Structures are given as C-alpha cells and as structure tokens.
Amino acid sequence: MPHRIEDLKPCIATVQVDNERVRVTRYTFLPGTDTGWHTHGHDYVVVPTRAGTLTIIERDGSTREVAYVPSESYARTLGAEHDVANLSDDTVEFVEIELK
Amino acid sequence: MPHRIEDLKPCIATVQVDNERVRVTRYTFLPGTDTGWHTHGHDYVVVPTRAGTLTIIERDGSTREVAYVPSESYARTLGAEHDVANLSDDTVEFVEIELK
C-alpha cells in the first residue's frame, strides 16, 4: 500500500460541473486533511483559489511541499499518483478541472 | 457593430497554459477595464479567483451584473458572444480554461 500520512481526515471535495467534457471539483483542505492516495485518470488543470502550502506524498514515500498561489494555474497529464495533504495551519483550496 | 461601453481600457490577459488540449488564461480586471467584444470559439470553464462584480454586455446592448465568488466555477459552451467589463472599484479576476 503506497505511503500515506496517518491521522489525516479527508479534504472536502465538491463537484461543481460534470459533463461530457470536464469534471470540475473544488478541493478545500482544512488543516490536517488530505485527498488520500489517488491516481489521475485524466489530464487535468489546477487553479489555486486560497493560498497556502500543501505536501505531496509520492509513491516511494518521499514528500515535497508546494506553495499554492491563487490564480497561478498549472496543467498535468493523466497517470500522476500521489496523496495531497495539508500539514499546515491554514485552509488551502484549489479547483481541479479534469479533461475527459 | 455590437454595443460596447466606451472609455474602457483592456483587461490584463495572461496565458498560463497552451497545449493541445487546453488554453488557460488569467483575466485580471482592474477597475474600468474590459475584455472587449468577443465570441468564444471553444467550450470553456471559468474559475473566479478574486471576488467582485463584472458587467456582461450582450449583443443587443443589454447588460447584466454577475457576482464572481472565488472558487465558484461554471462551464459554458462555445459561441457565447459578449463583452465583459469591470465597472466597479474593485479588481476582479478569474481563470478561464478553454477546451480545445
């Protein structure tokens, strides 16, 4: 089972659009929450909407911190596998647009 | 020529991603700026990142005000034709994801 940091609660995922082209989900990370381990089944775009730092946990257990700056968007391709955790004291949020 | 509000300067459009699947553009509307008249050539998703009210000017000159709430995203289909203007005193911003 890929690494995951214990004692974290699930972040809040709110699906805002789900049509034949995209699924748009807002992820709200209260302190001490994470997505849980997941593999991206689609190419996707991330648009940060609340500033803060999240920790990405890779398959091999290594971690890296990523600063999310509102409106500083990025795109990634399908197949990415990780857990995304909020180990900070701030609520962090982004909107993910999955390209079906 | 469709109606448009005079004396507005162009908003700031920053292309953040442009690949075979999407074009991701951040639109920053300083007070007194607009997109200018445009027709959407692609289905698109809008993710507001800075709160405020923008005015949509339709082809027939009618206008409607839309409140943009950070992370409250929406999707629209190609063919939409309008001008988007910031007639308020606040800077308003959103990220637009065009689906190629």
Characteristic terms for this protein:
homodimer, 100 residues, mainly beta, Jelly Rolls, 6-stranded mixed sheet, 5-stranded antiparallel sheet, RmlC-like_jellyroll (chains A, B), Cupin (chains A, B), RmlC_Cupin_sf (chains A, B)
Question: Would you mind describing this structure in some detail?
Answer:
- The structure is a homodimer of 100-residue chains.
- In chain A, the strands form two sheets. In chain A, strands 1, 4, 5, 7, 8 and 10 form a six-stranded mixed sheet that branches. The first copy, chain A, has a five-stranded antiparallel sheet with strand order 2-3-11-6-9, with no helix packed on it.
- Chain A has a single domain (9-99), classed as Sandwich (Jelly Rolls), CATH 2.60.120.10.
- The relative contact order of chain A is 0.36.
- The termini of chain A are far apart.
- Chain A is mostly beta strands and 100 residues long.
- Chain A is built from no helices and eleven strands.
- Helix content of chain A is 0%, strand content 58%.
